[in-house]
Amino acid sequence: MECGGERHTLEGKVYMTATTGGFSLNIETPFENIEKAVLAANVDMGDKIKVQATASLSDNENTFNFEYDRMNNSFLAVATSPYFATTTLNASYTRTQGNLQFNMSFMNGQDTFSGHFTISSMDRNNITIKTEIATPIPELDRINFLLKYIKKEYTNIVVSLDKPVFFRANAKFSNLNREVKGNLNMNLEDQYIEADFEVPLTRFAPRATLTLPGHKYGVAANYESGLYSHKASADLFLNDVAHRGNFNIRTKAPYELGFRLDDWSRFHLRTDSSFLLM
Question: Which 3 state secondary structure label does DSSP give 32?
Fold first, then answer.
């Protein structure tokens, strides 16, 4: 179409087959300095799924290409534009019995980020996840992450990370008919932290400790009861100092009563119908 000596062109096309389809739209006009604009897209749903899209204005062309290979479980995506650096995303995964691996790389201009992910699962009680990530950042050139979960008589969980800070934690728990136990130790850079506890289910004797950088704390208790006697004790740990106390009583001859607190306070009384000892 011509109007006032200016030419305007509009051209469109659409096609479709059993597995493919697409359209294109071309515009040429001096209106708003558009000059030439193109919008096009194509889709192929064959053995490989392909998507191609183009949008251009004047001499600025933007493209997007996507390809998925169903046989090899991989895909590639590439985007180009004068407004940003060429961006490429490439990923693939493989699955075998008990293992799943996933690889991915991302490129933006000259910078490349990549990752390798592995999930190993023999069963729901034995799972390991490993991650390796590479980046163009010098401080984070390679990052390794590990998560492991094992459940047998004890449940064991391991978590580790080497960057941006070094961290490793190991947790172990048990929940048996006779006791409940737990242990957690962590390394954070050059600092070590540990927590430990034990709770028997057949008697009263809980115990717990906590180790921090430069400090250690702990507590323990015990209680025993017979037909005519009762005994109780407790321990308290503050760094290298331990405080201990106990108490006992007997309610049938010979009668007995006693307590002790560390080494500086103690009392003991035992008696029957014939003598008194103190």
Answer: helix
Question: For the segment 231-272, what is each residue's pLDDT rounded down to a tens digit?
Answer: 999 999 888 788 889 999 988 878 888 888 877 777 777 777
Distance from C-alpha of 228 to C-alpha of 162, rounded to nearest angstrom: 58
**Closest Cα to residue 221, out of 231, 211, 210?**
231
User: pLDDT digits over 163-221, tens only?
Assistant: 877 888 999 888 677 888 899 998 887 788 999 999 988 889 999 999 888 888 999 99
The domains of the chain are located at: 1-66, 83-164
Alpha carbon distance 165, 145 (integer Å): 11
User: Can you tell me which residue has the tokens 């990923």?
Assistant: 91
**What whole-number distance in Å separates Cα of residue 90 and Cα of residue 108?**
12
Residues in the chain: 278
Residues sharing a CB contact under 8 Å with residue 245, sequence separation 6 or more, in sequence order = 233, 234, 235, 259, 260, 261, 262
- What per-residue string of b and e applies to 208-241 under the rule 16 or more CB within 10 Å gives b? ebbeeeeeeebbbebeeeeeeeeebbeeebeeee
Helix (H, G, I), strand (E, B) or coil at 140: helix
